[in-house]
Give the backbone structure.
Amino acid sequence: MSDIMQRVKVFAEVGAFLRAFSSPSSGSHPLVAKFSSPLKEAIAKSKAENGWFTEDNVKYALAAWGQVLTLEHLTDWAQRYAINQQISPKKVAVIMAGNIPLVGFHDFLSVLLFGHHVVAKLSSDDKRLLPVLAAVIAEIDPELGKRISFVNKIEQPDAVIATGSNNSARYFNFYFEKYPNIIRKNRTSVAVIKETTSHEELEALGQDLFRYFGLGCRNVSKLYMPADFDINRVFKAIMNYSEVVNAHKYANNYDYYRAIFMLNKQPFLENGFVILKEHASLHTPVAVVHYERFTDEEQLRNQLVAQREELQCVVGSGIGDVPFGQTQNPALWDYADGVDTVAFLLALK
């Protein structure tokens, strides 16, 4: 474990840098002087190039990684695996999505921490932030920095981790079928509301709904609620997130789908910044949240189990596995699509 623990210390330093950058009042870090300006420039360019990457959301993502990358969390993660042999470093291609800021960072981190070389193909929607963090890593540990490559085309990897849509997954499966791979598809998250769900929990639900404008697989896109539940309780609780409609791309979606539903005479509820529509589908466009009524908790539980391949998180007490407001704060060992990335990496020969 000695080599891994050295890399744990490197990423703990990255976390300390991010915490100091995100919250200067919490303490200083020697790397802030050198990398604060490049990171601020990357944030500004990300915002200019991608209308979904608001400064608030990008800074939230950076701060969230700062909170996760601690010596305690990283050590806990590493020690969950029995690593008894010398790892033979492989060239692992990581094809990243760009739906939310730094969405590919966990794969990037996993590959490096557990002893391999990362060959990253960045999304054109999120190409600015990770290279700055890679430069921070290289500053802390130049040898680890040499294990990082950014490429425009994946050629002859030893293994592949690719994240995209259901359509791109078909392409990835065809193109990379001869390599060990993890291919991820579309997923979304849901929340189960009960009569006993508190106002505070419903307020926290707003974070699950609106952080990153609902574009992440961990964002809640559908609500399940009892047959006689007062849906106005939801509207009242999430009013603190009304400013989301001030973002023009979000507002365009809200106006478009509101107009479409009205023209088609489809029933829906709205509050000026989000549309609630009763519908069986799990997946929704931006600014629209589906809901469904239930009368039997056990039947709902079975329904969610049957839909598990489409779900990333199920929020709510009793049936759900994630507390309200916590979908965007996964632990390091909460793997996308439920596939253990580290077990995959450690099995490479």
Q: What stands out?
A: The first helix runs from residue 2 to 22. The mean pLDDT is 96. The longest strand covers residues 220-226. The chain has two domains: 2-186, 188-315.
